[in-house]
Amino acid sequence: MKRTSDRTDRISSLPDDVLVHVLSFLNTRDAVRTCVLSKRWRNTWTIVPILNFDFYEFPTELVSEDDDDDIKENIKEDLKFDSFVCSVLENRGPSHVDTVTFTGEFMSHFCEPSMRWLHRAALLMPQVISAMIPCFELAELHLPDSVFSCASLELLELIHNPYVGKAYLKQNSIALASLKTLMLVNLVLDDDFARKLLLGCPVLEDLQLLDCELFMSDISSNVLKRLIIHDCWLLQHMRISCPILVSLFIISCKNTIRIISLENLTSLVYATIELVGSDEEEVVDTLPKLKFLCGLSNATYLKLLFRPLPELKEQLENEISCGTFCNLNCLDIGAWNMVKHFSLVALFLEHSPVLKQLALSLNRDVIQEMPGRDVSFQLEYIETVNIFSDEKKLARRRNHKRRSVGEIIK
Asked: Is residue 397 part of a domain?
């Protein structure tokens, strides 16, 4: 019997909720194109709650500063993108928008695009905006006021185009009543912005600063629960005071130990701190030594990675000796040369009465140099000690009343 083909359009017969869910995974330009499929699809794209716009759909090329024709073409493509986004947003109707994302990179160094599209997106009162922001290197970046006054916004991600350097983020005012999470990438931030941000975001719980230059002297908040400062330059004294902060991550930052002060972190549970020096270390040699490890004394899980910079060991020893890590359950310490800092481990244990797990990251080429007599300590509270070398586990020992880490390794 000859089989007949089934040409029934089963997809179009699906409920609106299902079709809208499927379209939300598409780039918005592709979602709009489905309007030509049939009458059933003509207006479906207008009720999709997740909008994804991509600069790559309207490509611009890197051009020579002297090539006027190419610059005009770049401006033309930018206007196409702006026109498309605004047209989509204007023709959506009254349906709710949850998320608006702008991805891709604006590639011209010589023509700065309009941000009318970002303004129009904020007027839709979404809960989430994630945007790659185009701007000239070291220019002042003023985003539309509608973005920083969007009352419905709960998550905001602003990523400055890394191909054109960093830009100074400047705002006249900030009033984000519902904002809980903010991520800023590749920007220059100063005290004025920080002050407006912390005052204008009364429920901000999660602040992420990535690859930024920070001229910020104070991050004080009674609502912040998680703070991430990653791969940033700290260019002046910074005080962090957040009494309900639960998680703190300061990773791959420059000038950290000499320039940062941690205070009032009474609710801290998780902390990862990477202390990194720089070629310009002498610039901050005259700065006063500030509270650092003392501010971590309430942590339950603590991970430290540090280089053996001049005077760093002495400062850390003094700070550890000044307090007790009364909640510390897990301690993970790593360094480029653990031999010079092994006494710090003993000191930590002496001031950590409830410590259960200890992890040490060692360089394999210095393991034989470790003088066990210099790092002897009681291990009566510790249940597990893990020794890592070159990211591989070298040893794992349960406590058998050994008195030194040197004994454990051997």
From this structure: no
Whole-structure pTM value: 0.83
Burial of 401 (0-12, 13-18, 19+ CB in 10 A): exposed
Under DSSP, is residue 1 helix (H, G, I), strand (E, B) or coil?
Answer: coil
- Domain housing 139: 49-216
If you count them, how many residues does the chain have? 410
Q: Is residue 62 part of a domain?
A: yes
> What domain count does the chain have?
1
For 66-75, 135-144, 177-186, 338-347, which range has the lowest pLDDT when averaged over its residues?
Answer: 66-75
Residue 140 lies in a domain: yes
d(CA 408, CA 396): 8
Contacting residues for 278 by C-beta, under 8 A, at least 6 apart: 254, 255
pLDDT digits (tens, 9 = 90+) for 37-75: 777 788 888 889 999 998 877 765 444 444 454 444 544
Whether residue 223 contacts residue 200, with contact meaning beta carbons closer than 8 Å, is answered with: no
Dump pLDDT digits (tens) for 116-127.
889 999 999 999
Q: H-type helices in 240-356, by residue range?
A: 256-259, 312-321, 342-350
Q: Do the Cβ atoms of 95 and 129 come closer than 8 Å?
A: no
406 in a structural domain: no
Q: In what order do the strands lie in the sheet with 238-241?
A: 218-220, 238-241, 260-263
Q: What is residue 88's three-state secondary structure?
A: helix
Q: Which residue has the higher pLDDT, 392 or 23?
A: 23
Distances in whole angstroms, Cα of residue 190 to Cα of each of 179, 237, 262 = 20, 12, 19
* Structure confidence at residue 106 (pLDDT): 57
Nearest-angstrom CA–CA distance, 184 and 169? 10
